[in-house]
């Protein structure tokens, strides 16, 4: 991996050159490289990027180290401790590691965060975000003990308590907390898979549809800016309920294809923002969801360019960062690898972002 220090101006020049080179020579992947391209001073520097690979062993080491340090390594994220389990755990499962060996330690820890839903750490209040990451970790472990830990009645009670009093179909992240589409997404997908009270879904599709913006993406709440994370949450919830058609999918697709940047190959989260590896999942997964809903019958993102961007965002000793020059973290490692995996095969479920085989197990368990 080559790290080069450049000024912003130099960086822009290089990006323009790469875009120009790639446009002119679609054959950059083929064996024969035209002489004209070989003569281009930027090609020599960037040619090795096409030969980069996913650093699987290094990422496994990176994530294992962080996962086994539950308690110490996650102190800095005090109100989101279950996330610090889910991110490395999901990354390891995507890399086909056997995660059953972590079962005892993770269950022991999450038990301390459990009320009905989960808090961000032991002795904290219930909150939808750590509830989501805790449940996903239990799904990934996919054992009778991990799923047996889920308190469905308690979850139902918690979900009823966070209904938005001002807006039908909307939810708050915690009691008296903020309302946004993340909350609706979490409630919807958990009600569906855990077979909770279907009345909790009343009005959700209509509310999500009302948050689609003039650009075609979905905002956090009505009248807010379209954003990759919220667009994923809103559309995934609709697909999960079989109600994808409640929004204008053509408009969504139009917004989405314009989020993959021509120069870098990765996605940005909003119009006029810079590329970030985590949107490989938040935006990339929407392409898979559009196929899952039946709206598209082929992959429309540029997979090769996205993979090249993720390759560039790898730390040589493991872990993925937001963009070159940043440090790796488990959040970007999880979502970089999740996006990477969704371009490759059918391993990962694009609604839940855990392996499909785990979703099958959970569905059978709660039949
Ligand atoms: Zn990011």
TrEMBL record:
One of its GO terms (cellular component) is protein farnesyltransferase complex. This is Protein farnesyltransferase subunit beta. Residues 54-346 form the Prenyltransferase alpha-alpha toroid domain. It comes from the Eukaryota. Belongs to the protein prenyltransferase subunit beta family. Catalyzes the transfer of a farnesyl moiety from farnesyl diphosphate to a cysteine at the fourth position from the C-terminus of several proteins. The beta subunit is responsible for peptide-binding. InterPro entries: FTB, PGGT1B-like, Prenyltrans. GO terms for molecular function: protein farnesyltransferase activity; zinc ion binding. It is an enzyme of class 2 (transferase). It catalyses: L-cysteinyl-[protein] + (2E,6E)-farnesyl diphosphate = S-(2E,6E)-farnesyl-L-cysteinyl-[protein] + diphosphate. Its cofactor is Zn(2+). The keyword Metal-binding applies. Its EC number is 2.5.1.58. Keywords: Metal-binding, Prenyltransferase, Repeat, Transferase, Zinc. Binds 1 zinc ion per subunit. It comes from Paramecium pentaurelia. Heterodimer of an alpha and a beta subunit.
